[in-house]
């Protein structure tokens, strides 16, 4: 199950820097997770200052 980033995202980029497989990239107004690349490690969740990242 991949992680998803909600509209609470403030585009700080902390999650992208924490992702070991580079599954997170800047989208239109918020960061997005590539579900096909995500290994569901959860590293991004702990880095998000707004709690915008959840498991799908």
Structural features, described:
With 56 residues, the chain is α+β, with helices and mostly antiparallel strands. 18% of the residues lie in helices and 21% in strands. The protein has 2 helices and 4 strands; from the N terminus they run βαββαβ. The chain has helices at residues 14-18, 43-47; strands spanning 3-5, 24-26, 31-33, 53-55. The chain has a two-stranded antiparallel sheet with strand order 1-4. A two-stranded antiparallel sheet has the order 2-3. β2 (24-26) and β3 form a beta hairpin. The radius of gyration is 9 Å and the shape is globular. The termini are close together.
Please sum up the structure shown.
The protein is an alpha+beta fold and 56 residues long.
The tally of helices reads 2
Report Rg: 9 Å
Helix content: 10-25%
Integer average pLDDT: 95
- The structural class is alpha+beta
Using the alpha-carbon principal axes, give the shape.
globular
Sheet with most strands = 2 strands, antiparallel
Distance between the termini: 6 Å
Number of E strands: 4
Low-pLDDT segments: none
Q: What's the arrangement of strands in the largest beta sheet?
A: 1-4
What fraction of residues sit in β-strands?
A: 15-25%
What's the SSE pattern? EHEEHE
């Amino acid at each position: 199950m991949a992680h998803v980033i909600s509209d609470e995202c403030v585009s700080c980029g902390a999650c992208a820097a924490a992702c070991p497989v580079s599954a997170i990239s800047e989208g239109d107004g918020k960061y997005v997770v590539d579900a096909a690349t995500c290994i569901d490690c959860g590293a991004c969740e702990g880095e998000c200052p707004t709690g915008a990242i959840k498991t799908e």
